């Protein structure tokens, strides 16, 4: 990003959203990604499905994105990344999500694990993991949640005990997306007892195929297997796989959440359904009311997108826009649900998960069955509003 695209923000207030105009290079990049998505659509890999960042697992597609330099785009070139910053990355993921492309294999590595290893990892960890992430050859899961400590993340009970040359992890992580198909998880565990529950936590890079890792599927309402309970039954993790400092786990995970919460995936999960609605409306003469509702959705999408871009620009400038990210996620995920409700109300088509794949009734059923998760995953809206309130109080 060139500095001229972003108003200077030496210290970012918790409610500042830098005003961003995407540079000319982003326009060219967007055209390249669209052409790529068209090619992939023609070969049958881009199916225009909702929630493709969570449900579209296709490692071949991820590798082809990586070959074009679109995985690990914001990582420095010395670690195999493209060194192109968060705004270029934004354009790529926005286009892929809008197309409903199957990006979930590399999603967490690209969004979170890569930046986190870059920031907190040892030089050895950076040299080992980052080039593999950027090549689309190493996929990560998030191992934060647990059964009795979802929103209250600081109460995690998974323990890491010291051994002669590392750590032994015991506990169960819940809702671990992709653990059955990915390579590693970044696991938050308790390394020390402390009065302050935010202290004594650490992060570990855990090989999901290591002895003692037992992965139990949790099926979605649709029957899909995307999530798991990951039982860590005395898993030995070498010293070199402690990520960051012992005891700094809380600070590290809360820092990561700005990456997790603010991106276009928080308002584009159901965008392919809007595209499908427009196709349906094209085939009949749309009523004024239908057009008004489409206009309202489009205006809301545009506003949330502008805020989300502001967070990407703040990340690019080295800020940690946690409050802004929480706000974008709250607004964006509510919009995702509202989009499904509006589509149903203005075009009363019965949802049918057995209809032809890619047809409107099938896409509607898919979006509906996934919709309970929109406002939960990555932190519930109630929790986000707590973060926003605290941010506003500080201001
Ligand atoms: C689709 C999906 C994907 C996910 N993927 C992952 C993943 O890959 N890795 C991972 O680690 N986790 C993942 N999660 C877990 C997710 O982050 C948690 O579900 C979420 O943080 C909420 O935790 P919980 O489900 O235990 O609910 P709880 O924490 O038990 O909350 C239940 C309800 O109480 C409310 N609540 C709780 N505390 C408060 C409070 N203090 N004030 C007001 N309201 C409160 C919550 O908002 C919620 O409505 C995923 C979840 C979903 C649904």
Automatic annotation (TrEMBL):
Q: Name one GO cellular component term.
A: plasma membrane
Q: Domain (Acyl-CoA dehydrogenase/oxidase C-terminal): give its ranges.
A: 276-392
**PROSITE patterns found in the cross-reference section:** ACYL_COA_DH_1 (PS00072)
A GO MF label: flavin adenine dinucleotide binding
Cofactor names: FAD
What residue stretches are annotated with the Acyl-CoA oxidase/dehydrogenase middle domain? 142-231
InterPro entries the record matches: Acyl-CoA_DH_CS, Acyl-CoA_Oxase/DH_mid-dom, Acyl-CoA_Oxase/DH_mid-dom_sf, AcylCo_DH-like_C, AcylCo_DH/oxidase_C, AcylCoA_DH/ox_N, AcylCoA_DH/ox_N_sf, AcylCoA_DH/oxidase_NM_dom_sf
Looking at the record's lineage, which domain of life comes first? Answer: Bacteria
Q: What's one Pfam family here?
A: Acyl-CoA_dh_M
Q: Which residues form the Acyl-CoA dehydrogenase/oxidase N-terminal domain?
A: 24-137
Q: Which UniProt keywords apply?
A: FAD, Flavoprotein, Oxidoreductase
The record's family statement is: Belongs to the acyl-CoA dehydrogenase family.
Tell me what this protein is called: Acyl-CoA dehydrogenase
Organism field: Streptomyces albireticuli
């Amino acid at each position: 990003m060139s500095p001229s695209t972003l108003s200077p923000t030496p210290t970012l207030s918790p409610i500042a959203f830098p005003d961003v105009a995407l540079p000319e290079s982003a326009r060219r990049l967007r055209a390249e990604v669209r052409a790529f998505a068209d090619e992939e659509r023609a070969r049958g890999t881009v199916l225009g499905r909702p929630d493709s960042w969570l449900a579209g697992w296709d490692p071949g597609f991820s590798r082809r994105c990586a070959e074009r330099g679109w995985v690990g785009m914001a990582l420095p070139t010395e670690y195999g990344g493209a060194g192109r910053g968060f705004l270029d990355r934004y354009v790529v993921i926005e286009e892929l999500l809008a197309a409903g492309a199957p990006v979930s294999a590399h999603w967490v590595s690209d969004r979170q694990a890569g930046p986190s290893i870059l920031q907190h990892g040892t030089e050895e960890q950076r040299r080992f993991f980052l080039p593999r992430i950027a090549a689309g050859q190493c996929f990560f899961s998030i191992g934060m949640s647990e059964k009795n400590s979802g929103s209250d993340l600081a109460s995690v009970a998974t323990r890491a005990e010291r051994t002669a040359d590392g750590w032994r992890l015991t506990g169960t992580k819940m809702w671990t997306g992709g653990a059955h198909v990915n390579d590693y998880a970044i696991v938050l565990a308790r390394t020390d007892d402390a009065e302050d529950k935010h202290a004594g936590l650490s992060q570990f890079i855990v090989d999901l195929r290591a002895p003692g890792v037992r992965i139990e599927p949790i099926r979605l309402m649709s029957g899909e297997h995307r999530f798991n309970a990951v039982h860590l039954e005395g898993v030995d993790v070498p010293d070199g796989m402690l990520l960051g400092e012992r005891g700094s786990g809380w600070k590290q995970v809360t820092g990561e959440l700005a990456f997790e919460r603010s991106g276009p995936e928080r308002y584009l999960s159901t965008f392919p359904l809007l595209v499908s609605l427009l196709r349906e409306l094209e085939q009949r003469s749309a009523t004024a009311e239908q057009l008004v509702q489409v206009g309202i959705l489009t205006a809301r999408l545009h506003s949330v997108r502008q805020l989300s871009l502001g967070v990407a620009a703040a990340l690019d400038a080295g800020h940690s826009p946690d409050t802004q990210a929480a706000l974008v996620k709250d607004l964006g995920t509510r919009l995702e649900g509202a989009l499904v409700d509006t589509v149903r109300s203005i075009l009363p088509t019965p949802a049918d998960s057995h209809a032809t794949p890619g047809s409107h009734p099938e896409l509607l059923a898919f979006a509906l069955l996934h919709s309970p998760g929109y406002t939960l995953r990555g932190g519930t809206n109630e929790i986000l509003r707590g973060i926003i309130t605290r941010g506003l109080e500080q201001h």
